[in-house]
Specification:
This protein is α/β, with parallel strands linked by helices. It folds into 2 domains: 4-84 and 193-270, HAD superfamily/HAD-like (Rossmann fold), CATH 3.40.50; 89-190, 2-Layer Sandwich (Hypothetical Protein, Haloacid Dehalogenase-like Hydrolase, Chain: A, domain 2), CATH 3.30.1240. Helices cover 35% and strands 23% of the residues. It has helices at 9-13, 22-33, 46-56, 89-99, 121-129, 157-169, 195-206, 223-228, 240-245, 258-266, and strands at residues 4-7, 37-41, 64-67, 72-75, 81-84, 105-110, 113-116, 135-136, 150-154, 176-182, 185-190, 213-217, 231-234, 248-249. The strands form 2 sheets. Strands 5-4-3-2-1-12-13-14 form an 8-stranded mixed sheet, sandwiched between helices. It has a 6-stranded mixed sheet with strand order 8-7-6-9-11-10, with helices on both faces. Helix 2 (22-33) packs parallel to helix 10 (258-266). The radius of gyration is 18 Å and the shape is globular. The chain starts with a strand and ends in a 5-residue tail after the last helix.
């Protein structure tokens, strides 16, 4: 029997309008009542994830959450941090300087706040979706005297692909972990930290074997946990890359309750 489900949020648990299908909520509650942990594992900040935990009823004792693509693991009820990995400030500055050469919107997460340099409609949309109030700074490098949670950029996919090429050609990939979390979002995270490492850390905290874990996702930043879980699942609307690594591909999309399909097929019917 599976004892733990790690689930991505955007384009996996949420539909394209950023709402949570009712069937997903109902299935999650049944899974938790049956004794299975359900944990959000997202690139989003803990500040953003807390709202979703409340919506699902996962803000209770014995519930956990993973944010920043594995950068933080915490108790969902007390908000106590169990594990945290930060991006070195000097490395974050390298990412910022590289990205400034391109037409993208730059943001930095630090100390449970979202910072940006130049106002834009894309940043406003991102912040509203994340339920955060961003803070404008003249120079993002000024907060990088400290280690930060992550650097994230928004832009056209073709431009982000150019940035990714430069990351690898300049060797910056040896200083940090980078990936697409959506077609228009590219992230710079702490080196060797991802959702897969968070799966391993949480499995040790809960004393749950990795073979008893389900991981569900849709994009590049979900591949690490999908590969390490006992059952790796890609939702039907996921990228070709994650589908190649998955043990199971859902028949339903994120708009149709793909997460509920997984819970009903692999958790509820086994109990």
């Amino acid at each position: 029997m599976y004892k733990l489900i790690l689930c991505d949020l955007d384009a996996t648990l949420l539909d394209d309008n950023k709402n949570m299908p009712y069937e997903n909520i109902a299935a999650i509650k049944k899974a938790v009542e049956s004794g299975c942990h359900f944990v959000l594992s997202s690139g989003r900040s803990n500040m953003s994830l807390n709202n979703f935990n409340k919506t699902i009823g996962l803000d209770k004792k014995g519930c956990y959450c993973i944010g920043y693509n594995g950068g933080i693991i915490y108790e969902a009820d007390t908000l106590k941090v169990l594990s945290e990995h930060l991006l070195k400030g000097c490395i974050a500055v390298k990412a910022i300087k590289l990205c400034r050469k391109y037409n993208v919107d730059l943001m930095v997460y630090y100390n449970e706040r979202l910072y940006y340099e130049k106002p834009s409609e894309r940043i406003d949309t991102y912040a509203a979706r994340s339920k955060l109030i961003p803070i404008c700074l003249d120079d993002l490098e000024s907060i990088c005297i400290n280690d930060v949670s992550k650097v994230i950029i928004i832009g056209r996919n073709s431009i982000l692909c150019e940035i990714e090429k430069e990351v690898y050609s300049t060797g910056l990939d040896k200083d940090m972990t980078t990936f697409f979390s959506a077609s228009d979002l590219y992230e710079f995270n702490p080196l060797n930290i991802d959702k897969g490492t968070a799966l391993e850390e949480l499995s040790e905290i809960l004393n749950i074997d990795k073979e008893d874990i389900i991981a569900i996702g849709d994009n590049m930043n979900d591949i690490s946990m999908v590969k390490k879980a006992g059952l790796g699942v890609a939702v039907r609307n996921g990228t070709d890359e994650i589908k190649k690594e998955a043990d199971y591909i859902t028949e339903k999309t994120n708009n149709e309750g793909a997460v509920a399909e997984v819970i009903e097929k692999f958790v509820l019917k086994k109990r």
